[in-house]
Protein backbone atom coordinates (compact mmCIF):
# COMPACT_ATOMS: atom_id res chain seq x y z
CA UNK A 1 0.00 0.00 0.00
CA UNK A 2 1.41 3.37 -0.90
CA UNK A 3 2.08 5.93 1.79
CA UNK A 4 -0.45 8.74 2.34
CA UNK A 5 0.82 12.04 1.01
CA UNK A 6 -0.01 15.32 2.71
CA UNK A 7 0.05 19.02 2.04
CA UNK A 8 -1.03 21.95 4.21
CA UNK A 9 -4.84 21.98 4.40
CA UNK A 10 -6.59 24.90 2.73
CA UNK A 11 -7.53 26.51 6.10
CA UNK A 12 -3.94 26.27 7.39
CA UNK A 13 -2.48 29.73 7.59
CA UNK A 14 1.24 30.19 8.09
CA UNK A 15 1.99 33.51 9.75
CA UNK A 16 5.63 34.68 9.87
CA UNK A 17 6.26 36.27 13.27
CA UNK A 18 8.96 38.27 15.00
CA UNK A 19 8.79 37.48 18.69
CA UNK A 20 5.05 36.75 18.44
CA UNK A 21 4.25 39.85 16.33
CA UNK A 22 3.28 39.62 12.67
CA UNK A 23 6.20 40.18 10.33
CA UNK A 24 6.04 43.27 8.14
CA UNK A 25 8.81 45.68 7.28
CA UNK A 26 8.39 47.66 10.51
CA UNK A 27 9.14 44.52 12.52
CA UNK A 28 11.88 43.09 10.26
CA UNK A 29 14.05 45.87 8.72
CA UNK A 30 16.56 46.71 11.50
CA UNK A 31 16.17 50.50 11.93
CA UNK A 32 12.40 50.73 11.42
CA UNK A 33 11.99 47.69 13.70
CA UNK A 34 14.12 49.32 16.40
CA UNK A 35 12.03 52.49 16.30
CA UNK A 36 8.80 50.50 16.14
CA UNK A 37 9.56 48.28 19.11
CA UNK A 38 10.67 51.25 21.20
CA UNK A 39 7.98 53.73 20.26
CA UNK A 40 4.98 51.58 19.32
CA UNK A 41 5.01 47.96 20.46
CA UNK A 42 6.43 48.29 23.99
CA UNK A 43 4.28 51.35 24.90
CA UNK A 44 1.23 49.58 23.44
CA UNK A 45 1.76 46.47 25.59
CA UNK A 46 2.41 48.62 28.68
CA UNK A 47 -0.83 50.51 27.99
CA UNK A 48 -2.70 47.23 27.63
CA UNK A 49 -1.38 45.95 30.96
CA UNK A 50 -2.73 49.04 32.70
CA UNK A 51 -6.25 48.29 31.48
CA UNK A 52 -6.59 44.95 29.67
CA UNK A 53 -10.39 45.00 29.78
CA UNK A 54 -10.60 48.34 28.04
CA UNK A 55 -8.24 47.19 25.26
CA UNK A 56 -10.00 43.86 24.77
CA UNK A 57 -13.40 45.59 24.50
CA UNK A 58 -12.19 48.44 22.28
CA UNK A 59 -10.43 46.04 19.88
CA UNK A 60 -13.80 44.34 19.25
CA UNK A 61 -15.80 47.54 18.84
CA UNK A 62 -16.46 48.23 15.14
CA UNK A 63 -16.90 51.94 15.93
CA UNK A 64 -13.24 52.03 17.07
CA UNK A 65 -11.94 50.06 14.07
CA UNK A 66 -8.43 51.20 13.15
CA UNK A 67 -7.59 52.20 16.75
CA UNK A 68 -4.49 50.94 18.50
CA UNK A 69 -5.93 48.43 20.93
CA UNK A 70 -4.46 45.08 21.83
CA UNK A 71 -7.10 42.45 21.07
CA UNK A 72 -6.21 40.02 23.86
CA UNK A 73 -8.76 38.91 26.50
CA UNK A 74 -7.92 40.23 29.97
CA UNK A 75 -7.60 36.67 31.39
CA UNK A 76 -4.45 36.38 29.29
CA UNK A 77 -2.80 39.56 30.55
CA UNK A 78 -0.16 37.42 32.27
CA UNK A 79 1.00 36.12 28.88
CA UNK A 80 1.19 39.68 27.56
CA UNK A 81 3.27 40.66 30.59
CA UNK A 82 5.64 37.77 29.93
CA UNK A 83 5.90 38.76 26.26
CA UNK A 84 6.68 42.36 27.24
CA UNK A 85 9.51 41.17 29.48
CA UNK A 86 10.89 38.87 26.80
CA UNK A 87 10.82 41.70 24.25
CA UNK A 88 12.52 44.10 26.66
CA UNK A 89 15.30 41.56 27.13
CA UNK A 90 15.74 40.29 23.59
CA UNK A 91 15.41 43.71 21.94
CA UNK A 92 17.14 45.91 24.53
CA UNK A 93 19.85 46.79 22.00
CA UNK A 94 17.20 47.84 19.48
CA UNK A 95 15.69 50.15 22.09
CA UNK A 96 19.13 51.66 22.77
CA UNK A 97 19.66 52.17 19.04
CA UNK A 98 16.28 53.88 18.65
CA UNK A 99 16.93 56.19 21.61
CA UNK A 100 20.40 57.05 20.35
CA UNK A 101 19.15 57.75 16.83
CA UNK A 102 16.33 59.97 17.96
CA UNK A 103 18.47 61.94 20.38
CA UNK A 104 21.40 62.33 18.00
CA UNK A 105 19.23 63.42 15.08
CA UNK A 106 17.72 66.19 17.19
CA UNK A 107 21.16 67.27 18.41
CA UNK A 108 22.58 67.23 14.88
CA UNK A 109 19.90 69.57 13.56
CA UNK A 110 20.77 72.12 16.28
CA UNK A 111 24.54 71.70 15.90
CA UNK A 112 25.25 71.35 12.18
CA UNK A 113 24.72 74.61 10.33
CA UNK A 114 26.91 74.11 7.29
CA UNK A 115 30.32 73.64 8.90
CA UNK A 116 32.30 70.45 8.40
CA UNK A 117 30.61 67.39 9.89
CA UNK A 118 33.91 65.57 10.44
CA UNK A 119 34.37 66.54 14.12
CA UNK A 120 30.81 65.45 14.89
CA UNK A 121 31.60 61.78 14.32
CA UNK A 122 33.26 61.83 17.75
CA UNK A 123 29.90 62.65 19.26
CA UNK A 124 28.16 59.67 17.69
CA UNK A 125 26.62 57.51 20.40
CA UNK A 126 27.96 53.96 20.54
CA UNK A 127 24.90 52.19 19.03
CA UNK A 128 25.19 54.31 15.84
CA UNK A 129 28.94 53.92 15.31
CA UNK A 130 29.85 52.15 12.11
CA UNK A 131 26.20 52.16 11.04
CA UNK A 132 25.70 55.71 9.77
CA UNK A 133 27.19 58.49 7.69
CA UNK A 134 26.58 62.14 8.50
CA UNK A 135 25.62 64.25 5.54
CA UNK A 136 24.11 67.52 4.38
CA UNK A 137 21.72 68.10 1.56
CA UNK A 138 22.63 70.96 -0.83
CA UNK A 139 21.05 73.58 1.36
CA UNK A 140 22.94 72.41 4.44
CA UNK A 141 20.19 70.52 6.23
CA UNK A 142 22.02 67.77 8.11
CA UNK A 143 20.84 64.19 8.29
CA UNK A 144 21.96 60.77 9.40
CA UNK A 145 22.25 58.33 6.52
CA UNK A 146 21.91 54.77 7.69
CA UNK A 147 24.07 52.06 6.11
CA UNK A 148 21.36 49.48 6.11
CA UNK A 149 23.48 46.66 4.72
CA UNK A 150 25.75 46.93 7.77
CA UNK A 151 22.76 46.65 10.08
CA UNK A 152 21.60 43.40 8.50
CA UNK A 153 25.06 41.99 9.30
CA UNK A 154 24.92 43.13 12.92
CA UNK A 155 23.00 42.36 16.10
CA UNK A 156 20.07 44.64 15.32
CA UNK A 157 18.90 42.20 12.71
CA UNK A 158 17.18 39.48 14.72
CA UNK A 159 16.58 36.29 12.72
CA UNK A 160 16.71 34.37 16.01
CA UNK A 161 13.37 35.97 16.96
CA UNK A 162 11.67 34.86 13.74
CA UNK A 163 9.22 31.98 13.58
CA UNK A 164 6.45 30.60 11.41
CA UNK A 165 3.15 30.04 13.18
CA UNK A 166 1.03 27.29 11.62
CA UNK A 167 -2.57 27.85 12.59
CA UNK A 168 -6.00 26.57 11.60
CA UNK A 169 -7.87 29.61 10.27
CA UNK A 170 -11.52 29.47 11.35
CA UNK A 171 -12.59 32.81 9.85
CA UNK A 172 -10.95 35.84 8.27
CA UNK A 173 -11.89 37.97 11.26
CA UNK A 174 -10.11 35.60 13.66
CA UNK A 175 -6.61 36.64 12.56
CA UNK A 176 -4.94 38.99 15.08
CA UNK A 177 -4.63 42.55 13.81
CA UNK A 178 -1.23 43.00 12.15
CA UNK A 179 -0.20 46.19 13.93
CA UNK A 180 -1.72 45.92 17.37
CA UNK A 181 -2.14 42.34 18.51
CA UNK A 182 0.55 39.74 19.10
CA UNK A 183 -0.07 36.10 18.20
CA UNK A 184 -0.38 34.37 21.59
CA UNK A 185 -0.20 30.58 21.31
CA UNK A 186 -3.62 28.96 20.85
CA UNK A 187 -4.56 25.28 20.97
CA UNK A 188 -3.97 23.59 17.61
CA UNK A 189 -1.13 25.92 16.59
CA UNK A 190 2.52 25.06 15.93
CA UNK A 191 5.26 27.64 16.35
CA UNK A 192 8.22 26.76 14.16
CA UNK A 193 11.24 28.83 15.27
CA UNK A 194 13.16 29.38 12.04
CA UNK A 195 14.83 32.41 10.43
CA UNK A 196 12.96 33.58 7.33
CA UNK A 197 16.13 33.26 5.24
CA UNK A 198 16.34 29.48 5.81
CA UNK A 199 16.02 27.42 2.67
CA UNK A 200 14.30 24.68 4.76
CA UNK A 201 11.14 26.81 4.83
CA UNK A 202 10.66 26.01 1.16
CA UNK A 203 10.67 22.25 1.92
CA UNK A 204 7.41 22.79 3.81
CA UNK A 205 5.84 25.07 1.22
CA UNK A 206 6.81 22.85 -1.73
CA UNK A 207 4.23 20.41 -0.39
CA UNK A 208 1.49 22.84 -1.51
CA UNK A 209 2.05 21.37 -4.98
CA UNK A 210 3.97 18.16 -4.20
CA UNK A 211 2.45 16.42 -1.18
CA UNK A 212 4.78 14.32 0.99
CA UNK A 213 4.49 11.62 3.66
CA UNK A 214 3.92 12.64 7.26
CA UNK A 215 7.45 11.60 8.27
CA UNK A 216 8.94 14.01 5.73
CA UNK A 217 6.91 16.91 7.11
CA UNK A 218 7.89 16.00 10.67
CA UNK A 219 11.56 15.96 9.66
CA UNK A 220 11.22 19.41 8.09
CA UNK A 221 9.50 20.89 11.14
CA UNK A 222 11.93 19.24 13.56
CA UNK A 223 11.35 19.71 17.29
CA UNK A 224 8.42 22.12 16.69
CA UNK A 225 6.27 18.98 16.35
CA UNK A 226 6.42 16.28 19.02
CA UNK A 227 3.35 14.21 18.11
CA UNK A 228 1.66 13.35 14.80
CA UNK A 229 -1.65 14.46 16.33
CA UNK A 230 -0.33 18.03 16.52
CA UNK A 231 0.36 18.15 12.81
CA UNK A 232 -2.36 16.03 11.22
CA UNK A 233 -5.26 18.49 11.73
CA UNK A 234 -3.26 21.08 9.78
CA UNK A 235 -2.79 18.77 6.80
CA UNK A 236 -4.91 17.27 4.05
CA UNK A 237 -4.41 14.29 1.79
CA UNK A 238 -6.61 15.87 -0.92
CA UNK A 239 -4.51 16.28 -4.09
CA UNK A 240 -3.55 19.84 -5.05
CA UNK A 241 -5.23 21.60 -7.96
CA UNK A 242 -3.72 21.06 -11.39
CA UNK A 243 -2.61 24.22 -13.14
CA UNK A 244 -3.48 24.57 -16.79
CA UNK A 245 -1.28 27.17 -18.45
CA UNK A 246 -3.16 29.92 -20.26
CA UNK A 247 -2.72 29.64 -24.00
CA UNK A 248 -5.14 32.25 -25.27
CA UNK A 249 -4.11 34.65 -27.97
CA UNK A 250 -4.20 37.62 -25.57
CA UNK A 251 -3.17 37.91 -21.94
CA UNK A 252 -5.32 36.55 -19.11
CA UNK A 253 -5.44 38.51 -15.88
CA UNK A 254 -6.69 36.51 -12.93
CA UNK A 255 -7.72 39.11 -10.40
CA UNK A 256 -7.17 37.43 -7.04
CA UNK A 257 -8.40 40.13 -4.67
CA UNK A 258 -7.43 43.59 -3.40
CA UNK A 259 -4.30 44.64 -5.36
CA UNK A 260 -3.23 41.13 -6.29
CA UNK A 261 -3.46 40.09 -9.94
CA UNK A 262 -1.89 37.25 -11.90
CA UNK A 263 -0.97 38.07 -15.50
CA UNK A 264 -0.46 35.09 -17.81
CA UNK A 265 1.04 35.77 -21.20
CA UNK A 266 2.91 33.53 -23.67
CA UNK A 267 3.97 31.05 -20.99
CA UNK A 268 5.09 33.78 -18.57
CA UNK A 269 3.37 34.52 -15.26
CA UNK A 270 3.55 37.79 -13.32
CA UNK A 271 1.95 38.23 -9.91
CA UNK A 272 1.29 41.82 -8.84
CA UNK A 273 1.24 42.67 -5.10
CA UNK A 274 0.91 39.06 -3.93
CA UNK A 275 -1.54 38.76 -1.04
CA UNK A 276 -2.98 35.23 -0.96
CA UNK A 277 -5.10 33.87 1.86
CA UNK A 278 -5.78 30.49 3.41
CA UNK A 279 -9.40 29.36 2.95
CA UNK A 280 -11.07 29.56 6.37
CA UNK A 281 -12.80 26.43 7.67
CA UNK A 282 -16.00 28.39 8.41
CA UNK A 283 -16.21 29.60 4.79
CA UNK A 284 -16.31 33.19 3.62
CA UNK A 285 -15.76 34.85 0.27
CA UNK A 286 -14.47 32.33 -2.31
CA UNK A 287 -10.80 32.71 -3.14
CA UNK A 288 -7.91 31.04 -4.86
CA UNK A 289 -5.32 29.72 -2.45
CA UNK A 290 -1.70 28.67 -2.76
CA UNK A 291 -2.02 25.29 -4.50
CA UNK A 292 -4.30 26.87 -7.11
CA UNK A 293 -1.62 29.29 -8.33
CA UNK A 294 0.83 28.38 -11.13
CA UNK A 295 3.85 26.27 -10.11
CA UNK A 296 6.16 28.99 -11.40
CA UNK A 297 5.71 32.73 -10.97
CA UNK A 298 8.29 34.32 -13.22
CA UNK A 299 7.97 37.80 -11.75
CA UNK A 300 6.36 38.87 -8.48
CA UNK A 301 5.92 42.66 -8.49
CA UNK A 302 5.75 44.84 -5.39
CA UNK A 303 4.32 48.34 -5.81
CA UNK A 304 5.01 49.62 -2.28
CA UNK A 305 5.48 48.55 1.30
CA UNK A 306 2.02 49.05 2.76
CA UNK A 307 1.35 45.57 4.13
CA UNK A 308 -1.75 45.12 1.97
CA UNK A 309 0.73 45.12 -0.96
CA UNK A 310 3.94 43.68 0.49
CA UNK A 311 2.78 40.68 2.52
CA UNK A 312 5.62 38.66 4.02
CA UNK A 313 3.40 35.61 4.66
CA UNK A 314 2.56 35.29 0.97
CA UNK A 315 6.08 36.05 -0.22
CA UNK A 316 7.68 33.39 1.98
CA UNK A 317 5.12 30.78 1.01
CA UNK A 318 5.71 31.43 -2.70
CA UNK A 319 9.45 32.11 -2.49
CA UNK A 320 10.54 28.84 -4.13
CA UNK A 321 8.06 29.43 -6.98
CA UNK A 322 9.09 33.03 -7.70
CA UNK A 323 11.71 33.52 -10.42
CA UNK A 324 12.39 37.20 -9.76
CA UNK A 325 11.02 39.45 -7.08
CA UNK A 326 10.69 42.97 -8.50
CA UNK A 327 10.73 45.75 -5.91
CA UNK A 328 10.81 49.55 -5.97
CA UNK A 329 14.13 51.24 -5.30
CA UNK A 330 14.65 53.18 -2.09
CA UNK A 331 16.81 56.28 -1.83
CA UNK A 332 18.01 55.63 1.71
CA UNK A 333 17.88 59.28 2.85
CA UNK A 334 15.09 58.69 5.34
CA UNK A 335 15.32 55.98 7.98
CA UNK A 336 11.88 54.78 6.95
CA UNK A 337 12.90 54.62 3.30
CA UNK A 338 14.31 51.19 4.00
CA UNK A 339 15.45 48.99 1.15
CA UNK A 340 12.82 46.45 0.02
CA UNK A 341 15.67 44.69 -1.79
CA UNK A 342 17.67 44.12 1.41
CA UNK A 343 14.50 43.07 3.22
CA UNK A 344 13.80 40.50 0.48
CA UNK A 345 17.36 39.22 0.65
CA UNK A 346 17.04 38.83 4.42
CA UNK A 347 14.02 36.62 3.68
CA UNK A 348 16.03 34.33 1.43
CA UNK A 349 15.17 35.79 -1.98
CA UNK A 350 18.15 35.37 -4.30
CA UNK A 351 16.87 37.10 -7.43
CA UNK A 352 15.67 40.57 -6.54
CA UNK A 353 15.30 43.23 -9.21
CA UNK A 354 15.14 46.82 -8.06
CA UNK A 355 13.77 48.81 -10.95
CA UNK A 356 14.09 52.55 -11.50
CA UNK A 357 11.27 54.41 -13.24
CA UNK A 358 11.16 53.40 -16.90
CA UNK A 359 13.64 50.59 -16.46
CA UNK A 360 12.20 47.51 -18.08
CA UNK A 361 12.51 43.76 -18.34
CA UNK A 362 11.81 42.06 -21.68
CA UNK A 363 8.99 39.52 -21.89
CA UNK A 364 8.11 37.35 -24.92
CA UNK A 365 6.50 39.86 -27.31
CA UNK A 366 6.16 42.21 -24.38
CA UNK A 367 7.80 44.10 -21.58
CA UNK A 368 7.54 44.81 -17.89
CA UNK A 369 8.18 48.50 -17.20
CA UNK A 370 8.45 50.25 -13.84
CA UNK A 371 6.61 53.59 -14.00
CA UNK A 372 6.15 56.45 -11.52
CA UNK A 373 3.82 56.08 -8.53
CA UNK A 374 3.17 59.51 -7.03
CA UNK A 375 1.33 60.53 -3.89
CA UNK A 376 -0.30 58.22 -1.32
CA UNK A 377 2.55 58.44 1.19
CA UNK A 378 1.64 61.86 2.61
CA UNK A 379 4.70 63.57 1.10
CA UNK A 380 7.15 61.16 2.68
CA UNK A 381 9.56 59.77 0.09
CA UNK A 382 9.39 56.03 0.59
CA UNK A 383 10.04 53.47 -2.17
CA UNK A 384 7.16 52.84 -4.56
CA UNK A 385 6.57 51.97 -8.19
CA UNK A 386 3.68 51.32 -10.51
CA UNK A 387 4.12 48.86 -13.37
CA UNK A 388 3.09 48.67 -16.99
CA UNK A 389 2.92 45.20 -18.51
CA UNK A 390 2.99 45.20 -22.29
CA UNK A 391 1.56 42.11 -23.93
CA UNK A 392 1.87 42.47 -27.69
CA UNK A 393 0.18 45.75 -28.54
CA UNK A 394 -1.88 45.86 -25.34
CA UNK A 395 -0.59 47.67 -22.25
CA UNK A 396 -1.85 47.22 -18.71
CA UNK A 397 -1.08 49.74 -15.96
CA UNK A 398 -1.10 48.51 -12.36
CA UNK A 399 -1.27 51.87 -10.59
CA UNK A 400 -2.08 50.48 -7.10
CA UNK A 401 -2.79 53.44 -4.80
CA UNK A 402 -1.20 56.09 -7.06
CA UNK A 403 -2.56 59.58 -6.84
CA UNK A 404 -2.73 61.92 -9.81
CA UNK A 405 -0.94 64.85 -8.21
CA UNK A 406 0.70 65.91 -11.46
CA UNK A 407 -0.94 65.37 -14.84
CA UNK A 408 2.45 65.66 -16.54
CA UNK A 409 3.49 62.28 -15.10
CA UNK A 410 0.71 60.49 -17.00
CA UNK A 411 1.03 62.67 -20.08
CA UNK A 412 4.70 61.67 -20.23
CA UNK A 413 3.84 58.04 -19.56
CA UNK A 414 1.72 58.01 -22.68
CA UNK A 415 4.39 59.84 -24.64
CA UNK A 416 7.06 57.37 -23.51
CA UNK A 417 5.08 54.16 -23.85
CA UNK A 418 2.14 54.90 -26.16
CA UNK A 419 -1.49 54.45 -25.14
CA UNK A 420 -2.20 52.27 -22.12
CA UNK A 421 -5.47 50.55 -22.84
CA UNK A 422 -6.19 49.04 -19.43
CA UNK A 423 -5.75 50.70 -16.05
CA UNK A 424 -6.04 49.07 -12.63
CA UNK A 425 -6.33 51.70 -9.88
CA UNK A 426 -7.98 52.28 -6.55
CA UNK A 427 -10.16 55.16 -5.37
CA UNK A 428 -9.83 57.18 -2.22
CA UNK A 429 -11.43 60.25 -0.79
CA UNK A 430 -9.80 61.07 2.49
CA UNK A 431 -7.26 58.27 3.13
CA UNK A 432 -5.37 57.44 6.31
CA UNK A 433 -3.14 59.97 8.12
CA UNK A 434 0.34 60.05 6.64
CA UNK A 435 1.74 58.47 9.79
CA UNK A 436 -0.56 55.43 9.37
CA UNK A 437 1.62 52.51 10.46
CA UNK A 438 4.65 54.82 10.65
CA UNK A 439 4.18 56.93 13.75
CA UNK A 440 7.38 55.50 15.26
CA UNK A 441 9.47 57.11 12.52
CA UNK A 442 8.40 60.63 13.45
CA UNK A 443 9.52 62.69 16.45
CA UNK A 444 6.82 63.25 19.06
CA UNK A 445 7.06 67.03 18.95
CA UNK A 446 5.93 68.45 15.63
CA UNK A 447 3.27 70.64 14.09
CA UNK A 448 0.39 68.19 13.80
CA UNK A 449 -2.04 70.87 12.62
CA UNK A 450 0.16 71.48 9.61
CA UNK A 451 0.31 67.74 8.87
CA UNK A 452 -3.43 67.27 8.99
CA UNK A 453 -4.05 67.33 5.25
CA UNK A 454 -1.18 64.99 4.43
CA UNK A 455 -2.87 61.67 3.77
CA UNK A 456 -2.16 58.18 2.47
CA UNK A 457 -4.61 58.75 -0.33
CA UNK A 458 -4.97 57.34 -3.82
CA UNK A 459 -6.82 59.17 -6.57
CA UNK A 460 -10.34 60.46 -6.09
CA UNK A 461 -12.83 60.16 -8.97
CA UNK A 462 -11.68 63.32 -10.77
CA UNK A 463 -8.01 62.46 -10.44
CA UNK A 464 -8.75 58.93 -11.62
CA UNK A 465 -10.59 60.21 -14.67
CA UNK A 466 -7.63 62.43 -15.53
CA UNK A 467 -5.28 59.42 -15.40
CA UNK A 468 -7.58 57.47 -17.73
CA UNK A 469 -7.76 60.34 -20.19
CA UNK A 470 -4.04 61.15 -20.09
CA UNK A 471 -2.87 57.59 -20.76
CA UNK A 472 -5.59 57.00 -23.39
CA UNK A 473 -7.31 54.15 -21.54
CA UNK A 474 -10.37 52.33 -22.82
CA UNK A 475 -10.80 50.00 -19.84
CA UNK A 476 -10.78 50.65 -16.11
CA UNK A 477 -10.60 48.09 -13.34
CA UNK A 478 -11.15 49.75 -9.99
CA UNK A 479 -9.28 47.53 -7.52
CA UNK A 480 -7.30 47.55 -4.25
CA UNK A 481 -10.42 48.73 -2.44
CA UNK A 482 -10.02 46.42 0.57
CA UNK A 483 -13.29 44.63 -0.25
CA UNK A 484 -12.02 41.11 0.39
CA UNK A 485 -12.40 39.95 3.99
CA UNK A 486 -8.92 38.42 4.08
CA UNK A 487 -7.51 41.95 4.25
CA UNK A 488 -9.35 42.62 7.48
CA UNK A 489 -6.41 41.88 9.80
CA UNK A 490 -4.37 44.47 7.89
CA UNK A 491 -6.71 47.28 6.89
CA UNK A 492 -9.89 46.58 8.84
CA UNK A 493 -13.31 45.45 7.60
CA UNK A 494 -14.47 46.23 4.04
CA UNK A 495 -16.12 49.62 3.49
CA UNK A 496 -19.96 49.45 3.30
CA UNK A 497 -21.55 50.54 -0.03
CA UNK A 498 -22.57 53.93 1.40
CA UNK A 499 -19.06 54.82 2.62
CA UNK A 500 -17.73 58.02 0.98
CA UNK A 501 -14.94 56.02 -0.64
CA UNK A 502 -17.38 53.60 -2.27
CA UNK A 503 -19.58 56.45 -3.50
CA UNK A 504 -16.49 58.06 -5.00
CA UNK A 505 -15.70 54.76 -6.70
CA UNK A 506 -19.29 54.61 -8.06
CA UNK A 507 -18.85 58.12 -9.44
CA UNK A 508 -15.59 57.17 -11.14
CA UNK A 509 -17.22 54.13 -12.77
CA UNK A 510 -20.29 56.08 -13.91
CA UNK A 511 -18.23 58.93 -15.38
CA UNK A 512 -15.79 56.55 -17.06
CA UNK A 513 -18.69 54.67 -18.69
CA UNK A 514 -20.25 57.96 -19.80
CA UNK A 515 -16.98 58.66 -21.61
CA UNK A 516 -17.23 55.34 -23.44
CA UNK A 517 -14.85 53.27 -21.33
CA UNK A 518 -15.50 49.79 -20.04
CA UNK A 519 -15.37 50.21 -16.27
CA UNK A 520 -15.73 47.66 -13.51
CA UNK A 521 -15.04 47.45 -9.80
CA UNK A 522 -13.36 44.20 -8.86
CA UNK A 523 -14.14 42.16 -5.77
CA UNK A 524 -12.99 38.60 -5.24
CA UNK A 525 -11.45 36.31 -7.87
CA UNK A 526 -12.38 37.21 -11.44
CA UNK A 527 -10.80 36.19 -14.74
CA UNK A 528 -10.27 39.10 -17.11
CA UNK A 529 -9.32 39.04 -20.78
CA UNK A 530 -8.20 42.61 -21.43
CA UNK A 531 -6.88 41.81 -24.92
CA UNK A 532 -10.21 40.43 -26.18
FE1 LIG B 1 -0.90 52.02 -0.06
FE1 LIG C 1 -3.39 49.84 -0.63
UniProtKB/TrEMBL annotation:
Residues 7-239 form the Diiron non-heme beta-hydroxylase N-terminal domain. InterPro entries: CmlA_N, Metallo-B-lactamas, RibonucZ/Hydroxyglut_hydro, UPF0173_UPF0282_UlaG_hydrolase. The keyword NADP does not apply. Keywords: Hydrolase. Transmembrane segments: none annotated. One of its GO terms (molecular function) is hydrolase activity. Residues 270-426 form the Metallo-beta-lactamase domain. This is MBL fold metallo-hydrolase.
Amino acid sequence: MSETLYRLADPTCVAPLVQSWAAWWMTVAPIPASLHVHKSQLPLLKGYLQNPDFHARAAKDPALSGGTFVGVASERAGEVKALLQQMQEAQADRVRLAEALEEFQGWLVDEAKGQSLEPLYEKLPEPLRGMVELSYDYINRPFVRVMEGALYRGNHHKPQLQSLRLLPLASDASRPHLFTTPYLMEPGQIDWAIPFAEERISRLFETDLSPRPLGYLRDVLGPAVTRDEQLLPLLTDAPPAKYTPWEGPGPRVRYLGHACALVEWKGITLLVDPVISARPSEGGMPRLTFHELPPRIDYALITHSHPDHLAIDTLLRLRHRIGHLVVPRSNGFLVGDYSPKLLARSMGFQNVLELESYESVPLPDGELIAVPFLGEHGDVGHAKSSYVVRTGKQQLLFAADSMCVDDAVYRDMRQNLGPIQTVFMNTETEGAPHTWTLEALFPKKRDRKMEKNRRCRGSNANEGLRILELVGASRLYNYAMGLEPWLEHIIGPPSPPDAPRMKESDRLLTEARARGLTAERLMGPTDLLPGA
